[in-house]
Amino acid sequence: MIMRKHTIRRATALAAFALLAACQQQTETVKPVAQVTLQDAMNHIIDPEADVIWHATGTIATKEGVIENYPRTEKDWEAQRRAALRLLEASNMLLIADRRVTDKPFESAGPGVYSSAEVQRQIDTNRSAFNALALNLRDASQQLLKASDKRDVESLMKLGDGLDHACEACHKTFWYPAEKFPRLPAIPPSP
Ligand code: HEC
Q1: How many CB atoms lie within 10 A of CB 50?
Q2: Residue 119, ligand 1, Cβ within 6 A
Q3: Which of 164, 127, 163, 158 lies closest to 142, judged by CA?
Q4: Cβ(166) to ligand 1 under 6 A?
Q5: Mean pLDDT of successive 10-residue stretches along the chain, which has 191 residues
Q6: Is the CB of 174 inside a 6 Å radius of any atom of ligand 1?
């Protein structure tokens, strides 16, 4: 049978409509799913961006003397802004439930430090505390974003410390709650 032009057009329109409806149904029910392990998120998403922030300010000792380090050019500030944006969105990632800690299970690194299985168990049983600590990171990132938009060096320095605290607060709860540092000898042994 030869389809007439308008029949074909109608059939195409109907097919397109059906496809659109199917897509809409899917996007309405879609839920974010954790694709990346917590360990990969830490090492490859969060840590590199935090380093951009931390390396941007501070003092460096050189042969010529101590140099104050801070963002100077537009490019420097754009790098700060980009890092703050990425940390901000990464903090949302941490809120997605059911993220596996790792696909390479690890043992405890010493007394008071959890193995990956223990980290997983802690997160699974204290999800609301974990989420609250992820929100700390979100706050810290939001403030960093504001400071970089205002090109505010002083705030950027202070907020770098705040960022560090946001990381540590979670690590001390979910990774090394009672880490014991070996006591250093009072007098260094002679060579
Ligand atoms: C809401 C909790 C949370 C926050 C916030 C958080 N982390 Fe983590 N991080 C963890 C947990 C739990 C582990 C231990 C499990 C693991 O190694 O992935 C970890 C591990 C790490 C590791 C080691 C990964 C490895 O090789 O095992 C690095 C590096 C790291 N975090 C960096 C950071 C930095 C930098 C920040 C802040 C900018 C941060 N984290 C903020 C929960 C958090």
Answers
A1: 24
A2: yes
A3: 163
A4: yes
A5: 67 72 72 94 98 92 90 97 98 95 96 97 97 98 98 95 97 92 68 63
A6: yes
